[in-house]
Write a structure and sequence with these properties.
3 helices, single chain, alpha+beta, 8-stranded antiparallel β-sheet
Length: about 160
């Protein structure tokens, strides 16, 4: 009986160690985010959101960029029922299921950089679920890899397979 417990404990530790190596890479470094790209509100691809979300979200396909380390950066635009518009320059790291906001578009037409932007889980209690919807609708392929190209991301957003 002791032998069985030791075998089970050993297998559990190996499994935990292997999964930790996949998720945590101590050598991973993010390249510095360039300034936010300009965006065109007339070219937005709508993001399918659950019915209870009152804001409409869209992303300008011309703003997508995939970094060598697997971050997908983009500008997302939120429009309220009254027509008020906000935009954010964000990045999704599919490998860890995280999102980061680099800058916010101000009403004066200027970008304001987020001081010390931090990665947050896509499942965290954020004010909106647009980043999770983007990840599911074409930005990420599974949880471990970004889409292979911007064209693939745009195609996924135009033909979502996720039901909000």
């Amino acid at each position: 009986m002791k032998f069985e417990k030791l075998v089970w404990l050993g297998l559990t530790l190996v499994a935990l160690s292997a999964s930790a190596q996949i998720i945590i890479d101590p050598d991973w470094k993010e390249t510095e985010a360039p300034p936010p790209p300009s965006f065109n509100k007339d070219k937005l691809i709508p993001i399918e959101m659950p019915r209870y979300v009152s804001l409409r979200f869209g992303v300008d396909p011309a703003t997508f960029a995939i970094t060598p380390e697997g971050i997908v950066r983009y500008v997302v635009v939120a429009v309220s029922a009254t027509g008020s518009t906000n935009a954010m320059y964000e990045g999704i790291r599919c490998a860890t299921g995280e999102v980061k906001t680099y800058a916010r578009y101000m009403s004066n037409g200027q970008w304001s950089s987020v001081q010390d932007p931090q990665w947050q889980g896509l499942n965290d209690n954020l004010p909106s679920r647009h980043a999770m919807a983007l990840a599911r609708q074409g930005v990420c392929v599974g949880r471990s890899a970004a889409a292979n190209s911007v064209a693939e991301i745009v195609e996924g957003l135009k033909h979502p397979k996720w039901e909000p």
